[in-house]
Design brief:
The chain has helices spanning 11-27, 45-54, 83-91, 165-168, 256-265, and strands at 3-7, 38-43, 63-68, 101-113, 116-122, 125-130, 135-141, 144-157, 180-188, 201-204, 209-213, 219-223, 226-230, 233-249. The protein is α+β, with helices and mostly antiparallel strands and 270 residues long. The protein folds into two domains: 3-100 and 250-265, Rossmann fold; 106-243, Probable inorganic polyphosphate/atp-NAD kinase, domain 2 (Tumour Suppressor Smad4), CATH 2.60.200.30. Helix 1 runs parallel beside helix 3. The structure holds NADP nicotinamide-adenine-dinucleotide phosphate. Its main location: cytoplasm. The active site is at residue 45.
């Protein structure tokens, strides 16, 4: 198996990365930055987002695993002092087929402009927000007008991303085995002209939602930690990605609800 490491850049993450390279060299595990089979993210959940987007075109062939060098992460669930243990488990696997994998659904975004269509994937969420003025957009569900939105913005999250920005917006925690996306409002304005549901909505895999922003509106779009400013968007189709999932290598069980409890409530029963 070939590996690569993506690290946050702080001193602890760098030291752990150096240590992993030494262990891998001793075990004869080759490093391949272009075409790894397994990518070790050392840092936080933000580091895993960077790793995901670096290899977003190779999701079929790559499994991710994360060590957190800050607080417990959702994607980075190994502690720094467990590096040698994790490395030994990784080295005991010789082919990618032997890895125990969990797969999580992703958000797929299709942006239509006057000149074409572009497709993007997000691990956590896609957001669109107005710049300087409120975002004004029509939201359709399954090709039918649902509501007229006016406010700060709209967040479309994956189940894995439900614990991130979505949570701050009052969205529900969604188990990543559910193939769904969640639409959450960011500070909607409600009056007689602009009326929104006011609650997050969860759509199953076979549903889609289309967002039609007011023409030539200047907006800030985000895919996880990546931002782009756009004023050429005609519509945005959001759905569960049909042909792509993210794969995480699991070397021990760590149930999603235990992560939620440990991250947000604080009981550590291990
Ligand atoms: P950041 O602003 O430096 O950090 C955002 C925080 O979100 C970090 O504590 C990060 O954990 C945590 N996080 C990321 N993914 C998570 C997940 N799936 N579940 C629980 N927590 C998660 O930004 P960043 O590190 O570049 O990450 C971008 C992400 O930040 C976006 O995808 C968005 O979800 C989140 N965000 C949240 C808010 C908010 O809650 N108000 C606002 C903007 C963006 P680590 O410290 O382990 O990296």
């Amino acid at each position: 198996m070939k590996y690569n490491v993506i690290e946050r850049g702080d001193e602890i993450s760098k030291q752990l990365t150096d240590r992993f390279h030494v262990l891998a060299a001793q075990q004869g595990m080759p490093r391949d930055e272009e075409n790894p089979d397994i990518v070790l993210s050392i840092g936080g959940d933000g580091t895993m987002l960077q790793a995901f987007h670096k290899y977003v075109q190779q999701l079929d062939t790559i499994a991710f695993v994360g060590i957190h060098t800050g607080h417990l992460g959702f994607f980075a669930d190994w502690k720094p002092d467990e590096l040698d243990n994790l490395a030994a488990l990784m080295f005991s696997v010789t082919t990618p087929e032997e890895l125990r994998i969990v797969q999580y659904p992703l958000v797929e975004i299709e942006i239509t402009t006057g000149t074409g269509v572009e497709t993007h994937l997000a691990l956590n969420e896609f957001t669109l927000r107005g710049i300087e003025v409120s975002l004004v957009a029509q939201l359709h569900i399954n090709d039918e007008m649902f509501e007229m939105f006016r406010g700060d913005g709209i967040c479309i999250s994956s189940p894995a991303g439900s614990t991130a920005y979505n949570k701050s917006l009052g969205g529900a925690m969604v188990h990543p085995s559910l193939e769904a996306i969640q639409v959450a409002e960011i500070a909607s304005i409600n009056n007689r002209v602009y009326r929104t549901l006011g609650s997050p909505v969860i759509l199953p895999k076979h549903h889609h939602c289309d967002i039609y922003p007011k023409a030539h509106q200047n907006m800030l779009l985000s895919l996880d930690h990546l931002y782009m400013q756009r004023s050429d968007v005609v519509s945005i189709r959001c759905r569960v990605a049909s042909n792509a999932k993210v794969k995480f290598a699991r070397f021990r069980p760590f149930p999603f609800w235990n992560r939620v409890r440990e991250a947000f409530i604080g009981y550590d029963v291990k």
